[in-house]
Amino acid sequence: MHRRIRSSAVVVALTATAALLAACGAPAAEEEQAEPITFWTPQSTPERVAAQEAVAARFTEETGIEVDVVPLAAADQDQALVTGAASGEVPDVILAGASQVTSWQAQGLLDTDVVQEAMDTLDPATFNENALGAVTVDGVAAAVPSDGWVHLIAYRTDLLEEAGVAVPTTVAELADAATTVKQELDVTGIALGTQSGTASATEGIESIFQSAGCELVSDGAVTIDSPECTEAAGYFKELRDSSVAGDYDVESARAAYLAGDAAMLLFSTHILDELADLDEAVPPSCKECADAPAFLAESSGFITVLDEAHPAQFGATLAYAVPAHADSPEARQYIEYVLGEGYADTLAVATEGRLPLRTGTPENPTEYLDAWGDLGFGPKVESSVAEVYGDDLVAAMGDGMAAVARWGQGTPDATLAGLVATQGTLAQQLDPLYQGTDPAEVTRQMATEVTALQQDQ
User: Fold this and answer.
1) What is the pLDDT of residues 287-323, one digit of tens each?
2) Beta-strand (E) ranges in 65-163?
3) Which CATH superfamily hosts domain 150-313+418-456?
C-alpha cells in the first residue's frame, strides 16, 4: 500500500529536475514549443496551490506544455470569465463547480466540443453518472467531472449499542435513533446544522429532505409542499429536537461530535482526518481522546448513503471546463492528464475533500477509487483512508459519491434551486416548525416563498 505525501518540496525538486533536463537538451530546447496554458483553480490555499503546481510541472515534463496555475475563488471566476470573454483574454482550463459551468454554458462562454473530445478519450462510462448529469444540459456536457465531497453520517458504534438502537437506514429510522439516544443517554442524538436562517441549516434541510425523497421543484413545478417534503420537515424537527445543547451550525455540530457530546453527526467527508487526529487545528477533545487520540476514528461507523431507496446525498462536485477561444488542444491534453496519469496526485491536493468522480478505467473500474484510498490525508498526511478506516469504507465512499445530488442540477430548474440555496429561503421558515407549527403549513409557506422567487426570475 502506497501513500502520496503532499509537500511544497516536491515543487522545488521538480523545478530543479526540469532545469537539469533543459541544460542537457530536453524538449524545452526544441525549436517548436507548445503554447503555454493558464489554469484557474478554486483550490487556493498555499499548500494546495503548491501541490497543483507540482502536478502541472510533471505534465510539463511529459508534454513540454507550460501551465500557469492561478488560484481564483468561485465568485471571482464568474466575474473574470465574463470580463475576459468580452476582451478575448480567457484561461484555457477552469476547475469549477457544476452549477457554475452549466451557467457558463448557457451564456455561450464554453467550448463544449473539446470537452466532449476529452470525454470520449477517457470514456464516459468511467465517470460518475450523477456527476455527468450535473454538468450536462440539453444533452451537451459543459465540463469533464473531476472530484468532490459528500455528506455522510458518522455515528458512535458504542453509544448506539448502549442506547439499544440499530444503525439507521432511512430518515425515519435516523429520527427515531436520534430521539432514543437522547432519551436513554441524555446526550445529543445527532448534531447537524439547524440554526434558523443560516447556510448550515440550508445544507441540513437539503441533505435530509433529499434523502427522504423530497424534491424542491420538478419540471418547473414547485414541489416542496409535497407529502414527501412535509414528512421530511417533521423528521427534520425530530432530529433538531434530539439535541441537548440547542441549535447547531456546522462548526458547533462538529465540535459536539469531536467532544463526545453527540452520538451522530451529519457532516462532509472533511471530518475523516479530524476524527483520526490528523488535523492539529481541529483535534478530537472527547474524554477518551486524551489517552487514545484515535478513539473516535476507531469507535465511529459511517453511513455514506442514508436511504438506498432514495440515494441522494448532499455534496459538491468540481469539473474541468474549457472557455471558448482557449488553446483547446493543449487544454484537452491537460484535462486528460489530470484525469488519467496524474489523477491520483491531483486528488492528493486535498484527499478528504477530493473524492474521484472517475472511479477507474475500462480495464480496472476501481483503479482511481482504490488509489484515493491509499493517499495520505489531512494536513499531516501521515496515513491513508484505507489504513485508518479500512478498504470497506473506501468502497462505501465511492457509493456515496455516486449518490451525490443537488436539487435542480442538470435541469432547467438549476437556477431556481441555486437562488433558494444562496438566499436561505427554506431555512428562514424553520422557527415556526420548531415552535410547533404543523409541518404541512411550514412546507406550504416554503412553497409560497419558492414560487415568489420563481416568478421574479
Assistant:
1) 999 999 999 999 999 999 999 888 999 999 999 999 9
2) 67-71, 93-97, 136-137, 140-141, 144-156
3) Periplasmic binding protein-like II (3.40.190.10)
Contacts of 395 (CB under 8 A, 6+ apart): 366, 369
Spatial distance between the Cα atoms of 383 and 369, rounded to a whole number of angstroms: 16
Question: In DSSP terms, which residues pair with 266 in a beta bridge?
Answer: 153
Residue with cell string 491534453: 333
Over the stretch 325-368, which tens digit does the pLDDT of each residue have? Answer: 998 999 999 999 999 999 999 999 999 999 999 999 999 999 99
Backbone angles phi, psi at 152, to 5 degrees: -135, 170
Residue 428 makes CB contacts below 8 A (sequence gap 6+) with: 196, 197, 449
Q: Which three cell numbers stand for residue 156?
A: 458512535
Residue 35 is classified by DSSP as P
- The CATH superfamily label for domain 9-142+315-393 reads Periplasmic binding protein-like II (3.40.190.10)
What is the chain's length?
A: 457
Residue pair 141/115 in contact by the 8 Å Cβ criterion? yes
On whether the CB atoms of residues 145 and 128 are closer than 8 A, the answer is yes
- How does DSSP assign 391-418, residue by residue? HHHHHHHHHHHHTB--TTTTSTTHHHHH
